[in-house]
Write a structure and sequence with these properties.
The complex is a heterodimer. By secondary structure, chain A is α/β, with parallel strands linked by helices. In chain A, helix 4 crosses helix 5, helix 6 runs parallel beside helix 7 and helix 9 packs parallel to helix 10. The chains are: A alpha/beta, B mainly alpha.
């Protein structure tokens, strides 16, 4: 019996000698660092982005991970840092990330952070007179138009609000030829709301809608009676509100009180979220908003479930973060990224080149085009608030 | 100015005055603490908003009537008031005014960040009473919910004044406010009176937080800072330590805010409110109802 046990042990020991060394080697990991607002009033954006990045990483890891340049498979690990939606913090966070062996970062949440942050990157690749940071960054949320133009190291997977509202107003013109006038309301002290309001006004005018006036308020305002009275006096067919959920709901509630009932309501992309419905589902009923995410495809439904599992909510912003992770996997594999401490500089250059060379990527709603100035052309839909949830109203691609 | 403009101007002033009741309640809290301890509690408005949030979070998933939510907010305000006293004043040497000021700034930010972490910064709907009532008088309309806020604000102020001027506890509070050393020699415990003041002002703050939420229909962590600024402006204009001053200044600031919003727009509105504050600081630094302690 003892001889048999010794024989089995010897056999097992011998077999172990023939097992490939890589099996015993520590599993390789690739760290992708995201950053965005995880404190302050826009914390929800950071929470959702982090959940989306982690959900996508889990999906990639479950299917074997990412193949590195030396042929080994690596698992993706996500780290997410808080920039508090503050430009100085954002720059500091990215400098910290760039001082590690990271070869890419994903973020930020706020356009004001992205604008300053992209400014510290090298403007033109290969410009030896420019000592800017040579580190690729791909933005998932910061929505203000044209930000990637600032540096050739900056990329975005953010929907073009210009295209969205251009399409929406053209569609409204055909669907509602009886509507002639529009009244605008804007959250004056928020870069995204302000920029998008400019787009709304321009596209409304291009499509023959007459601007009957506009009201302004601030992000932290508590009363809207004066603004809504101006709106009431204008008696426009359409009211377009370029504001985030807190003041959008404040204005909608005041409109209800003062009996302002436009024939059509239009909202800001960022308000097509659960926050608006939590705050004022009844008053928001019927509001039309263009968005680049809705759980209408099997991939989008699955993404929404996975993001929820990680404590986030899938919306047009976090869906972009989810897509970014798959874009990065494809670029890492195509560019044969080594992900070793001694190849950091080369990996960063290869990642930038890989991202810049993309003409098209896969998205949750379909193919996403890439522009020469490193922006995304994302498919989008129009949703409207109906019975306390967001429903697809129209798909311009259909 | 045509007739419509005139109507809108009057309506704006009326709306502002009604909403000003919430500023007045916050001003009372600031001024009462200053009156008793000669200290500014910058965490007061944040604690008030925190109390309103607490009432929602405690009742999460329960469909409670608005009155219960308001009551809970008042209770939570009292608890938070006590906590603010213990954290920022009880064990910090009061001889150094900057120490308590900075500790309340720290607590303001801490309360704000706790709210943000608990709610992810997402605005929450807050219940209101009489939100569907509009009292019409010709071309004018007064919001039922704001009138309720105004009435509740008035009741709170009356109760507070009765408490301060008609009870032994109020007598002790005034004694501590005017001559702390003499009050101690008479057997009044400074710690007890100070703690009591914080709890009472906390209750008023809880009501103010609830009324602000009810008036807007929502709560957001965005509210803490502007309400802190408004509360301080009201306190300075009304006169540091003066309860009637805080009441009148609150209504005044609410009315001014709306009238400037109507006449000059949002980009200049706060500028004029600040100019009003500076005018008081320069020409009447003690505020409308200067108290002897403020003069000192």
């Amino acid at each position: 019996m003892r001889i048999l046990a010794v024989a089995i042990a010897a056999l097992l020991g011998g077999a172990a000698l023939f097992v490939p060394e890589s099996t015993f080697a520590q599993e390789r990991t690739v760290k992708i660092t995201g950053f965005g607002a995880k404190s302050g009033v826009v914390r929800v954006f950071g929470v959702n982005s982090e959940a989306a990045l982690k959900a996508a990483a889990e999906e990639i890891n479950n299917s074997g991970g990412v193949t590195l340049g030396d042929g080994t498979k690596a698992k993706i690990v996500v780290e997410f840092l808080d920039d508090r939606c503050n430009a100085e913090e954002g720059i500091s966070v990215v400098r910290r990330i760039a001082s590690t062996d990271a070869f890419i970062a994903v973020g930020p949440t706020c356009s004001n952070v992205a604008e300053s942050l992209f400014g510290i990157l090298q403007k033109k690749v290969g410009d030896s007179s420019d000592s800017g940071l040579q580190f690729p960054i791909i933005a998932d949320v910061a929505a203000k138009g044209g930000l990637a133009k600032i540096s050739e190291w900056a990329f975005r997977n953010v929907p073009s609000e210009f295209e969205m509202y251009k399409s929406l107003f053209a569609w409204l013109k055909t669907q509602h030829p009886d509507l002639k006038t529009i009244y605008g309301g804007v959250e004056k002290d928020f870069a995204h709301s302000n920029a998008t309001f400019g787009v709304m006004k321009e596209q409304a005018a291009v499509n023959g809608f007459q601007l009957a006036g506009q009201s302004e308020w601030l992000l932290a305002d508590t009363t809207f009676s004066t603004q809504v009275r101006e709106m009431k006096r204008a008696d426009a067919d359409i009211v377009a509100i370029s504001a985030h959920p807190f003041t959008t709901c404040g204005v909608l509630k005041e409109m209800e009180r003062q009996g302002v009932k436009p024939k059509l309501l239009i909202g800001l992309t960022s308000s097509s979220s659960i926050e608006t419905l939590q705050g004022c589902a009844k008053q928001a009923e019927g509001i039309i908003i263009p968005t680049s995410f809705a759980p209408v495809t099997p991939e989008a439904k699955m993404a929404a479930e996975r993001v929820a599992k990680f404590g986030g909510s899938a919306d047009l912003h976090s869906a972009a973060a989810y897509e970014v992770m798959f874009i990065l996997r494809d670029v890492i594999e195509a560019q044969k990224i080594m992900a070793r401490p001694d190849t950091v500089a080369a990996d960063r250059v290869k990642m930038r080149e890989g991202l810049a060379a993309l003409k098209e990527t896969k998205g949750l709603l379909g193919k996403i085009g890439r522009t020469p100035d490193r922006e995304a052309i994302k498919p989008f839909l129009y949703v409207h608030a109906k019975d306390g949830s967001w429903e697809v109203l129209y798909n311009p691609a259909s | 100015m045509d007739l419509l403009d005139l109507i809108d101007t009057i309506q704006s002033i009326a709306d502002g005055l009604l909403f000003g009741a919430t500023y007045a309640m916050l001003g009372i809290g600031f001024t009462l603490i200053f009156g008793v301890m000669h200290k500014i509690n910058l965490a007061y408005a944040a604690a008030s908003v925190g109390a309103a949030y607490a009432s929602l979070l405690i009742l999460a998933g329960v469909k409670a009537p608005p009155a219960v939510v308001f009551l809970l907010s008042a209770v939570a305000g009292g608890v938070l008031g006590g906590i603010v006293y213990v954290v920022c004043f009880r064990f910090i040497p009061l001889v150094n005014p900057l120490a308590t000021l900075m500790s309340t700034v720290g607590l303001l930010l801490l309360i704000d960040e706790i709210i943000v972490h608990e709610t992810q910064g997402v605005p929450l709907a807050y219940p209101a009473l009489f939100s569907d009532v509009i009292v019409r008088a010709g071309p004018f309309g007064l919001r039922g919910d704001l009138m309720f806020v105004f009435a509740l604000g008035c009741v709170s102020m009356v109760v507070l004044l009765l408490l301060v001027y008609r009870t032994r506890l109020g007598l002790a509070t005034r004694a501590v406010s005017q001559q702390p050393t003499a009050a101690q020699l008479c057997g009044i415990s400074l710690d007890q009176v100070n703690g009591f003041t914080f709890i009472v002002t906390g209750v008023v703050g809880g009501v103010a937080g609830a009324m602000t939420g009810a008036a807007i229909g929502m709560l957001s962590p965005l509210l803490s800072l502007p309400l802190t600024v408004k509360g301080l402006i009201v306190t300075v204009i009304g006169g540091l330590g003066s309860i009637p001053g805080a009441i009148i200044a609150g209504l005044l600031v609410g009315g001014f805010e709306n009238i400037f919003q109507f006449l000059r727009g949002v980009s200049e509105r706060d500028l004029y409110v600040m100019l009003l504050l500076f005018a008081f600081l320069v020409f009447r630094p003690g505020g409308m109802f200067r108290t002897s302690s403020a003069r000192e």
